[in-house]
Input
Amino acid sequence: MKQQETVEIDLDRTYFEEAAYMLKAVANEIRLCVVMQLTRAEEKTVSELMEGMNCEQSLLSHHLTDMRAKGILQCRKSGKNNYYSLKDRRFSNVLRCLVSCGDGHNADGKV
Output
């Protein structure tokens, strides 16, 4: 019985480690905005992503590069454009959960 409890704890820990990694990887307003835009559209160019944001192109490119390295985004090149899309749809699901949780809050932050 003790061994079975240990296995369940290990599985839970792995799950939480992965969840923590995912949350850290998108813990930035620019990254969250990118995920939201790519949730609504399958793929977008850097220019299209910039239209919905208030940041420099160089800053957005930095975040896109890091998000690719962390396995959040994938990129395909076509002509002069790079098209970004979500590589892992779980990031979209996480953001949807966060947005839907916000629907139950009052202006004072109480549920």
Remarks:
- Residues 2-25 form the longest helix (24 residues).
- Residues 2-101 form a domain with the Arc Repressor Mutant, subunit A fold (CATH 1.10.10.10).
- Residues 107-111 have pLDDT under 50 and may be disordered.
